[in-house]
Write a structure and sequence with these properties.
Layout: H1 4-18, E1 26-28, E2 38-40, H2 42-49, E3 55-57, E4 61-64, E5 68-73, E6 78-86, E7 91-101, E8 109-113, E9 116-118, E10 121-123, E11 137-139, H3 140-143, E12 149-151, E13 156-163, E14 169-178, E15 185-186, E16 192-199, E17 204-209, E18 213-221, E19 228-230, E20 243-249, E21 258-263, E22 267-275, E23 279-285, E24 291-300, H4 303-307
Parallel strand pairs: 3-5, 4-6, 15-17
Antiparallel strand pairs: 1-2, 5-14, 6-13, 7-12, 7-14, 8-11, 8-13, 9-10, 16-24, 17-23, 18-22, 18-24, 19-21, 20-21, 20-23
Function: Binds CRF and inactivates it. May prevent inappropriate pituitary-adrenal stimulation in pregnancy.
Pfam family, one: CRF-BP_N
Keywords: Disulfide bond, Glycoprotein, Secreted, Signal
Length: 322
């Protein structure tokens, strides 16, 4: 049985697909119980490619993956609302306030968060984000006209809002900007291929896949002999400034996930692992002394792969949760 976290995250991602356009634009691909993904139809793609600005109203709980202008007008008191934004791995999200009519003195608020929060867990984690948690929030009621444009540090962001008076609301414009060196990514899809590069920067970067997956690392350059170690109390990459680790868990925050394997040294070839956790994260830790790079591909585990476990180069984890 799927866990509550997996259900919530899959609901968010499905909601994302459904909210990419109006109902008339939605098409179902491979509709099944396990993969109810919705795609944009060719009609909406043509409209957007023609240079038109996409506009629609926001729901109290909503999700956006495309650029455009979005408005919310309260039909009744709304106390717990949020909109999730997500882009491609190489994109940053910019949110511009076009119009805001809320009663800050009456308890309304409109806040942008640099990342995602779900059930109290943050992505990126506090260990991986360049700003302290308090600075990741931008409160309109505190900043007002001082900061009317906010850019995320990664491909996800969100807003929280509370509006008491019917008729009040706001309008925002969402834009996307290119990120030359993506760091901290949530994948929109259960399969893909990605190369993460950290060029002489002292930072940690996490790539999150909210599905049980097979992940295969084909190329790893850390600037310092071959080695792959399973996590144990006395072994691993302790003392090594540059390494990649695989994490698995049932929450959103990588710092609260279970460490599954360390990759401490450069190699060319293939290291494959089946991770049956609700959330899988590949995390690169960089000292800033080298240009570090890792290339990997992933796809969602299917029933046959969960049953045939002897094909892995290293052992599997979290299968009881799926």
């Amino acid at each position: 049985m799927p866990s509550a976290f997996q259900f919530q995250c899959h609901f968010v991602l499905i909601f994302l697909a459904a909210s990419k356009g109006e109902t008339r634009y939605l098409e179902v691909r491979d509709a099944s119980e396990d993969e109810p993904f919705l795609l944009l139809s060719e009609d909406l793609k043509r409209e957007l490619s023609a240079g038109q600005i996409y506009r629609r109203s926001l729901r109290c709980i909503d999700m956006l993956s495309i650029e455009g202008q979005f408005s919310f007008t309260a039909a009744q008191t709304q106390l717990h609302c949020a909109t999730f934004f997500i882009g491609e791995p190489e994109e940053l999200i910019t949110i511009d306030y076009d119009f805001v009519n809320i009663d800050c003195q009456g308890g309304d608020f409109l806040k942008v968060f640099d990342g995602w929060i779900l059930k109290g867990e943050k992505f990126p984690s506090s260990l991986d984000h360049p700003l302290p948690t308090s600075q990741r929030y931008v409160d309109f009621c505190e900043s007002g006209n001082i900061q009317r444009s906010i850019r995320s540090s990664q491909n996800v962001a969100m807003i929280f809002f509370r509006i008491h008076q019917p008729g009040n609301g706001f309008t925002i414009t969402v834009k996307k900007n290119t990120n030359l060196f993506p760091c901290n990514v949530i994948s929109q899809t259960p399969s893909g291929r990605f190369t993460m590069v950290i060029p002489h920067q002292h930072r940690n970067c996490s790539f999150s896949i909210i599905y049980p997956v097979v992940i295969k690392i084909s190329d790893l350059i850390l600037g310092h002999l071959n080695g792959l170690f399973l996590k144990k109390p006395s072994v691993g990459c302790a003392g090594v400034g540059d390494f990649v680790e695989l994490l698995g868990g049932t929450g959103l925050d990588p710092s609260k996930m279970f460490p599954l394997a360390d990759l401490c040294h450069s190699f060319h070839g293939s290291a494959q692992m089946k991770i049956g956790c609700d959330n899988t994260v590949l995390r690169m830790v960089s000292s800033g002394k080298h240009i570090n790079r890792v290339t990997f591909e992933y796809h969602q585990l299917n029933l046959q792969e969960t049953e045939n476990r002897k094909e892995n180069s290293i052992e599997e984890f979290c299968f009881p949760s799926i």
